[in-house]
Amino acid sequence: MDHVDCIVAGAGVVGLAIAREVAQRGMDILILEAENAIGTGISSRNSEVIHAGIHYPAGSLKARLCVAGREKLYRYCQERAVPHARCGKLIVATNAGQEPVLASILANASACGAGNLTPLTAAEARRLEPKLRCTAALLSPATGIIDSHALMLALLGDAEKHGATLSLNTRIVAGRIESGRIVLDTVDSTSGGFEIATARFINAAGLGATALAGSLDGLDRQFVPEIRYAKGNYFSVAGRAPFSRLVYPIPEPGGLGVHLTLDLDGVARFGPDVEWTDELDYRVDPARGERFYDEVRKYWPDLADRSLQPAYSGIRPKLSGPGEANADFVIQDAAVHGVESLVNLFGIESPGLTSSLAIADHVAQRLAPKTS
Questions:
Q1: SS3 label, residue 311
Q2: Less packed terminus of the chain by CB within 10 Å, N or C?
Q3: Is-contact 336 326, C-beta < 8 A?
């Protein structure tokens, strides 16, 4: 049976960031990815926003890792020439009744260390974005956008430079925890499957993380949380929208509202909404666009009829359900579940991309060091 120092399950942005960090610390890394390419799940079906860390509870993992990860990510993008832009965003109140919420967002952002947010009057906001409708706003200069696929390619390149190996089309079907190691049973598209042992196993399988953890014989099931799928649909607009910054409404339950984001070519897209679902179905129902018109016109009243078209959707692995407070990231190590050098990552949704490098450092510190 083959043996490696460390196996990372999942080649999304978080798994690749972890593999890079651990490989740089001198361990032999094998990355196992069930799909035929890197980053086909959560990592490629999101808004591609570098978040400032504004909306998360102060002291939470989301808040701490987002703020730390944001600065790490901006530096990394500059060093590795990953396309990105620190474009800023406006969080807008569209009626007077929402303005107290802006004050609470500002206070929370300050408590989280999310950068210098600037309160704006309606007139000040319109000077920045003339087509914007609002009664007040907050300007977040630390928010940006990124080419997530270019980021993942850079992370993979760094990991491979330090000896990591990527195995695509390789699904982990079961595992068992033995004394001092974890043995994994896999199925792949070439050999039909193999058994491999590792001293350190990192479960960064995204939407499949809970199922994978549940397949490990020897892990107490009390440490495998229930996951819920929150589908977010996106619509794009024909032509260019007249905005140079991202525009976010007041957050809604389960998400940050139907916001306007830009890609690096300046093309606007709107979303995500929140659609609770039991299956991984990425089709976008065009009928959902009707609600988008109503929501977007609250801050962009000039949005033309029939200008929105279905773009794509993503599914977020939620540890909380409808009507419940948003759950924090869950990163479990031996101090929680008692299994040495097993790290499970659950509920790594937004701001997972922004936090990826900080998550990687957080996880690497929880692994047993390599013995010479």
A1: strand
A2: C
A3: no
**Helix/strand/coil for 293:** helix
- Is beta strand 342-346 parallel, antiparallel or unpaired with respect to 29-32? unpaired
Question: Do both 183 and 102 map to the same domain?
Answer: no
Helix ranges (H only) for the chain are: 13-24, 61-80, 99-112, 122-128, 148-161, 209-214, 289-296, 334-337, 352-364
* 3-state SS class at 284: coil
Please choose, from the candidates 5, 29, 3, the residue with its C-alpha nearest in 3D space to the C-alpha of residue 196.
3
Instruction: Find out whether 173 and 45 touch, Cβ atoms under 8 Å.
Output: no
What is the tens place of the pLDDT at every residue in 307-360? 999 999 999 999 999 989 889 999 999 999 999 989 999 999 999 999 999 999
- pTM (2 d.p.): 0.96
CATH number at residue 283: 3.30.9.10
Tokens read off for 214? 């549940």
Alpha-carbon gap, residue 8 to 341, rounded angstroms: 12
The interaxial angle of helices 352-364 and 148-161, nearest 10 deg, is: 20
Q: Which of 122, 66, 130, 65 is nearest to 98 (CA)?
A: 122
